[in-house]
Amino acid sequence: MGNKPKSKSKSKADRKERRSAELDEISLLNEWIESQKPDSGSNPLALKPLPDNAPVGRLHDGSFSAYSAATKFSELPLSKKTMDALKKAGYVKMTEIQRASLPHALCGRDVLGAAKTGSGKTLAFVIPVVEKLHKERWGPEDGVGSIIISPTRELAGQLFDVLKTVGKFHNFSAGLLIGGRKDVEMEKERVNELNILVCTPGRLLQHMDETPNFECSQLQILVLDEADRILDVGFKKSLNAIVSQLPKHRQTMLFSATQTKSVQDLARLSLKDPEYISVHEKAESATPSRLQQTAMTVPLDQKLDMLWSFVKAHLNSKILVFLSTCKQVKFVYEAFKKLRPGIPLKCLHGRMKQERRINIYSQFCEQRSVLFCTDVAARGLDFNKAVDWVVQADCPDDVASYIHRVGRTARYLSGGRSVLFLTPSEMKMIDKLKAAKVPIQVIKPNMKRLQPVSGLLSSLLVKHSELQELAAKAFIRYMRCIHIQKDKDVFEVKELPIDKFAASMGLPLTPNIRFVKKLKGKQLSVGESSVLELETSGGEPPAEIKRQKAETNKLREENLDLPAELLSLNDSEDEDVEKDLLLSKQTENKKKLKINIHRPVGTRVVFDEQGNTLPPLARVAGANNDDDLSLLDKDKRNEYYKKMREELMKVDKVDKVLDRQRRRDKRIKEKVKRKRGLGDEEEGSDEDLSGSGADEGTNGRKPKRSKIYFNSDSDDDGETRGKKESAIDDSISLAEQEALALKLLDAMHQ
Ligand SMILES: Nc1ncnc2c1ncn2[C@@H]1O[C@H](COP(=O)(O)OP(=O)(O)OP(=O)(O)O)[C@@H](O)[C@H]1O
């Protein structure tokens, strides 16, 4: 007790000493920064790097070292707290974008930074944010000093983590403000105490509109990560509303791998003589050099076969698969999960609850698995353990989108591979990519190794009625997505094999879609006039609204936090799909002979009353109900599926016996091989593949090696050849599965 006053005064003295040391440090840093400022417009990368062990900071003669030529963080005028945090996190040498932009940013200049994906842009803006507030001695009572805006919630979360790392020894308060969180009321109470906000535009605007006394008038730094995305049309209104509430006198930094140079955009942000820092502008490629990029032509109706084959061939990889809509992600994920490829599957899209999204994101960071996603995962995300493959199963909207998607692999110093599936009509994308310095190699897939999955999907859709609806919605959304794409050189609904595509998804009939019907009509009467014109003349919303709506749809797919007025534009999206589903029930009266060549091998071709060939399930539906459309009438459809399920159960019993026999034979074969000492390279039993969550290495055996069918796949080395051959067993089992599915279908037709 007696010591208490003493220790109190000691700690007070300590604090005073610390404060004075901090003030000394700040004044030294300011002096250093001011005296060695790089010239405006200069490129620090052009300077000769400081020699190793050169003195740093104040030199003997009272001058300061030239931090513009720094190559290590320790050579920069940074506070000890920041330096310690960087050291603790293992950051020593700077990347090019950090070397080029930090000297300008640290002396308070506006910066437009562009550098390839995975090149370390985050530290290039987080360090100046922390340093600026530190030098201003920002405290809780000063309110919001910095705002970092990200287009997606996941990316905002990741930026927040980097901020926590760099600010570890500082005393600022920081908050992550993103949509989808329930604790908005709690946020409202505390937001005014936060010094640094990491947020998505929608949530920030919500606080600006709804939170009493929300104040940004003292803002020192504004950062837009993925700036081109935030500045584009989808965010235009919200960003304008945000910027109008911020003080003009501030430092602004914009970063992206695909930077905007639009004067208009920059004017909106009131940038002052910004430093345009584009470290890779003269590089041979716009993408990381360690990234191997391939593309292949895949007819739309074989896309799922190809994707399935790819997944089956890379069971030991971490794969990110991009699809263009939430509905497709849901469908492909649910369907493939039921088919049990032998690797954990996950999905991520904007319609998922926030907690689930966070869980999936962190699981994918840790685990070898396949993540099916929309462009919600295209930008900025740095998945902890390297992603081996980025598969773009659907063509990206544009070159920028391509660059961001493939940028999820080959980050920092690691390598990675990507493959882009293009339908024959989308092949013009290759020229656009090449023109933008994307070194992509077009390869031919080995079609012999293609594992068809459409037959299996047909039978899945019979067994699981919810999948039928999902497939139909996915189909409709995909068509709409292509329809509203801006780039008509690449995306053209008219060029797509619509019926075959529907059949490839296992759909018994092609759902009718209003605009496709119109397009068909137009093809007959109007010729090649613009799609939007046609839509407008058909009494639909004018082109500008459609474009906005399209952009909003896209953002919703990415689950960006949109303000209410934008969301209202899009509220009808599900309704539209429902309407299209309803329309599917209406008969097309045109008596045109259409041969549906996409049918499982070995099934008879049967025509409906309009002369269309029908996939087997539709035919069964017709046979059962004397009406092709009965399949799309809800009650009749349920009744039909009930009947089919009963049929399936009967056939299943027979199949199970056959399957058990086959597995037993296989086990015996393996046992014999092992006994002969040849068993080492054998793949696991079918049980190893028995679930989408199946783990590798069970039974203490080596994990099953992937089967390679892509020419470019350098997994295909000598070492794996023996293992590849062992994977033939697997294709046999798939062929058998396919045969079983066909048998089922046949049984139903009888
Ligand atoms: N100086 C550095 N030393 C070591 N690792 C670094 C350094 N800078 C960044 N990294 C690491 O590099 C990876 C990519 O960094 P970051 O996410 O900032 O890239 P990016 O340029 O923002 O990519 P994208 O354009 O995709 O958003 C991260 O894992 C990060 O920790």
Strand order of the largest sheet: 3-4-2-5-6-1-7
Tell me the strand percentage band. 5-15%
The DSSP helix count reads 27
Query: What ligands does this structure carry?
Result: adenosine-5'-triphosphate
Percent of residues in helices comes to: 40-55%
The count of DSSP E runs of length 2 or more, i.e. the number of strands, is: 14
Largest sheet: 7 strands, parallel
Low-confidence stretches: 524-542, 555-632, 678-733
Q: What is the alpha-carbon Rg in Å? A: 30 Å
Mean pLDDT: 78
- Termini distance? 95 Å
The secondary structure category is alpha/beta
Shape: elongated
Biased composition (Acidic residues): 680-689
Domain Helicase ATP-binding: 102-277
Domain DEAD-box RNA helicase Q: 71-99
Motif (Q motif): 71-99
Offer a few descriptive terms:
750 residues, alpha/beta, 7-stranded parallel beta sheet, 9% strand, binds adenosine-5'-triphosphate
Structure report:
- The strands form 2 sheets. The protein has a 7-stranded parallel beta sheet, with helices on both faces. Strands 10-11-9-12-13-8-14 form a 7-stranded parallel beta sheet, sandwiched between helices.
- Residues 524-542, 555-632 and 678-733 have low confidence and may be disordered.
- The longest helix has 42 residues, at 634-675.
- The chain is an alpha/beta fold.
- It is built from 27 helices and 14 strands.
- Helix 6 (184-190) links the parallel strand 3 and strand 4.
- 46% of the residues lie in helices and 9% in strands.
- Adenosine-5'-triphosphate is lined by residues 91, 93-95, 98, 115, 117-123, 257, 380, 382, 407, 411-412.
